[in-house]
Design brief:
With 172 residues, the chain is α+β, with helices and mostly antiparallel strands. It has helices spanning 3-19, 33-45, 55-64, 90-99, 123-127, 132-171; strands at residues 22-27, 49-53, 80-85, 106-112, 115-118. A 5-stranded antiparallel β-sheet has the order 2-3-1-4-5.
Length: 172
């Protein structure tokens, strides 16, 4: 491969790394053509972009990207595919479901919510990762809960007082 072609690939990878919030490194070697097509179809449905890359080109792209992903260099051995996504847990769920019927893909590493996860044993953790928006929604719900409780108690208290007043009025 010409060095100009390599530079183009590195630049494209770097742009994708910088533009997507999350990415996973996986090993999909050993899948036959049919299984690979099935995996790509599932990725497309889940809005996950699957790219097979050379480790040296990916490393150079990671080095020139804005993200601090130096810890991922250890995972760049053997066959590597990158799964780019905006939803941090989507590739983990996809890998977990697909692995029930196939040996691959195997998670090598992931960059999710500005954190690095290494190894296939982190798959269950990644499935449960919530996005920033989901966490913000949880915090808002927690903050609203006491206020909603107070308002409902005030409303029920008003109904009780109204009932007592009606009873006193009827006695007169």
């Amino acid at each position: 491969m010409k060095s100009s072609d390599k530079k183009v690939i590195i630049n494209n990878l770097q742009e994708q790394i910088d533009s997507y919030s999350h990415f996973y490194l996986a090993d999909i070697s050993g899948l036959n053509a049919e299984d690979t097509s099935d995996l790509r179809r599932l990725c497309f449905k889940q809005e996950v972009k699957l790219v097979v890359v050379k480790n040296t080109l990916l490393r150079k792209a990671l080095e020139s990207s804005e993200k601090n992903a130096e810890e991922l260099y250890d995972a760049l051995k053997g066959n590597t595919s990158v799964m780019f996504t905006e939803n941090g847990s989507a590739p983990a769920k996809l890998i977990k479901d697909f692995s029930k019927k196939h040996e691959k893909p195997v998670l090598k590493a992931a960059y999710v919510e500005e954190s690095i996860y290494m190894g296939a044993d982190q798959l269950d953790v990644l499935v449960a990762v919530k996005s920033k928006n989901e966490l913000i929604a949880d915090v808002v719900a927690l903050l609203q809960s006491p206020m909603n409780t107070l308002l409902s108690q005030l409303k029920s208290g008003g109904n009780t007082i109204h009932g007592v007043l009606d009873t006193l009025k009827e006695k007169e």
